[in-house]
Amino acid sequence: MLELSGLDGSAPGTPAHTGGELQTLPTPGGQQVFTAPAVWHDLLFVADDGGTGAYRISGGRLKQVWSNGTPGTSPIVAGGLLYVYNPNGGGVVAYRPSSGRALTTLATPPGHWNSPIVVDGHVIEPTGDDNDHLLTGSLVIYSTH
After folding, report:
1. How many domains does the chain have?
2. Using an 8 Å Cβ cutoff, are 71 and 45 in contact?
């Protein structure tokens, strides 16, 4: 967590400095975070290769609200639900954002760097592994319609 007023505002060509760090905390699964976080109301969602979790600012500090051991790519919040793709085991897990309670897992194959797309009552998951360098792919589409 950073304090915006403490960030480097040095002019180009002057020595760079860092500052404004207020807090460092572990990730949900203790792995490096290569994913983009998601924000819903007052919650911040983070996933890594070892877990998924939610954080809230309290007393000027980030506090973990919940976490689990389910790996994930970039979390998506839509329609009041949190969707996280598990690249290791496959599947898109739908959670209640405030509690982290898993509601369902939509079956998909495992993959790499895939994140769910949620739009208009549909959950769409690209499949495959970008490291395979394939020129084709597929989508798994779930619909409430």
Report:
1. 1
2. no
Domain hosting residue 108, numbered range: 4-143
pLDDT tens track for 53-101: 999 989 888 999 999 999 999 999 999 999 999 999 889 999 999 999 9
CB 127 within 8 A of CB 139: yes
We report the CATH number of the domain holding residue 13 as 2.40.10.480
What pTM does this model have?
A: 0.84
